[in-house]
Write a structure and sequence with these properties.
Blueprint (H helix, E strand, L loop, with lengths): L8 H20 L13 E3 L13 H19 L3 E3 L2 E3 L5 H11 L24 H19 L8 E3 L5 H16 L13 E2 L4 E2 L17 E7 L14 E8 L9 E4 L4 E6 L4 E5 L1 H8 L12 E6 H4 L3 E3 L8 E5 L5 H4 L4 E4 L5
Parallel strand pairs: 1-2, 3-4, 8-11, 9-14
Antiparallel strand pairs: 5-6, 7-8, 7-13, 9-15, 10-11, 10-12, 13-14
Length: 349
């Protein structure tokens, strides 16, 4: 009678060969690269340092296999091949992961990081340093089981925990700065973390990876004097409603729209100019040098959209001398991404 079971003989044979070859590589160290006096082909390959806020996954193996296979091919040709490997412990990712463990330290079984659930030492992961001491050695073991042809003498971690790497980066930055290659505030905007007081680049984030700065154009429309009584705190200032658009130019505005129930503020941009917009927009502008007080919105008065209805405005690109603030009803996109103020132009302009 034929059996329905699947034969695992080939799999077991391959696993046996894998163990034997792994032991052979461990004993003979064929991937150590030394300088040679004789001339010959040399090949050097690197792999982007993986972040150590998690275990390695199949995506790493897929990408790494390309470098590994290229090195193996050239090694078979007799080339002197060097493939080092390093681990990225810089940035905010490890700190954010540690913070999540700190928040869940009293109920570890309820935490969201399934990769650590059930570990006896889970509480140690509330400390960022523990990630640095634990994750890289774990990754080395995984890569050895994968069979990576790496010279592990040339493995390292980033951050000042590694004084050699820290000294190299410090020297590099000083050297580039002395050559005028590093300029602070060059005008290229990046995602910034006010809490950490530093740029928060893509792989430094626990959430929001792939998000990039979105460039808007602000259209300044000046409030026509005399101001109404509710805008008395703004006397002596030039006051503008600032509408945001992704599709300039905006010729021939017919009206300006606000959300009647939305909260707006009058924020000092400099000594003379005031923008009326949402707090979220003012906060973002304050980190782009558009605030009387750097990185701190300075609000002179607060309004609702209802307070702004009927205000006469002067827009330099409008056909009419004055345009007026009217109510709109729309989605939260206006306040979540823009300034909470929109402007309308005739269709097709």
């Amino acid at each position: 009678m034929a059996s329905n079971s699947i034969s695992l003989v080939k799999r077991d044979l391959l696993s046996e060969i894998e163990l034997k070859v792994g032991k052979l590589w461990e004993d003979e160290q064929p991937f150590k690269a030394e300088a040679r006096e004789e001339l010959g082909e040399k090949f050097f390959s690197t792999f982007p340092m993986p972040y150590m806020n998690d275990h390695l996954h199949m995506g790493h193996a897929f990408s790494l296999s390309k470098a590994d296979f290229a090195c193996a091919y050239r090694r078979l040709r007799g080339a002197n091949v060097l493939l080092p490997f390093a681990f990225h412990c810089s940035g905010n990712s490890i700190i954010e992961s540690a913070d999540r463990n700190w928040d869940a330290r009293d109920s570890p079984e309820e935490r969201s990081d399934s990769k650590l659930r059930g570990r006896d030492d889970i509480r140690e992961f509330q400390f960022p340093y523990h990630w640095v001491w634990y994750m890289p050695p774990s990754a080395v073991e995984d890569l050895k089981e994968y069979g990576l042809g790496c010279d592990w003498r040339r493995s390292f971690v980033t951050t000042y925990i590694n004084p050699f790497f820290d000294a190299f980066v410090s020297w590099q930055m000083r050297k580039l700065k002395s050559m005028g290659k590093i300029v602070q505030g060059c005008g290229e905007y990046k995602i910034f973390s006010p809490e950490d007081n530093e740029p928060c680049l893509d792989h430094d984030r626990v959430t929001g990876k792939g998000v990039e700065p979105l460039e808007y154009l602000l259209i300044k429309m000046e409030v026509v004097k005399p101001f109404p009584q509710k805008m008395a705190p703004l006397q002596g200032k030039r006051v503008f409603l600032a509408a945001a658009t992704l599709s300039p130019p905006m010729y021939g505005q017919t009206y300006v729209g606000v959300l009647p129930d939305e909260k707006y503020g009058a924020y000092e941009i400099n000594e003379t100019d005031v923008f009326i917009l949402t707090h979220r927009a003012a906060f973002s502008l304050a980190y782009q040098n558009f605030s009387k007080i750097p990185r701190e919105p300075s609000c002179l008065a607060e309004f609702t959209g209802l307070d702004l209805l009927g205000l006469p405005l002067r827009s330099p690109l409008a056909v009419h001398t004055n345009i007026y603030v009217l109510p709109i009803s729309t989605t939260n996109e206006v306040t979540n991404q823009g300034t909470g103020i929109v402007t309308s132009v005739p269709s097709g302009v």
